[in-house]
Design a protein that fits this description.
There is one protein chain. The chain is mainly alpha-helical and about 110 residues long. The protein has a domain of about 70 residues. It is about 60% helix and about 0% strand. It contains 4 helices and no strands. It starts with a helix and ends with a helix.
Amino acid sequence: MIVIAALVILAGVVVVAMGRGGELARDRPPEPAVGDFRTWYDVAAYRPPAALLGYNAAATEHALAELARAMAERYAEINVLRSRLAAAELPADPEWQTTRHSADQGSAE
């Protein structure tokens, strides 16, 4: 009889801890939207919602998918800009040119 009562109490604690306890439930933050990860700080500041053991898997997967999409868009934009820059064939400005050899010489002095 005591074992059954202990199991019922334990089950109640688990239900409340998972956020299904009515007024005791914590507000879950909304899942990240398409534009939520615009800067490095947005990524660093994101905290996925907690679950009983670790993080909420669905919300974390959604956030990782949004991060991957944002990074893919950014890399695609960088590649387009690099190809446009290469196609422009602008003359090199020696003031902005740095090579490994010149950088090493500057630090050795």
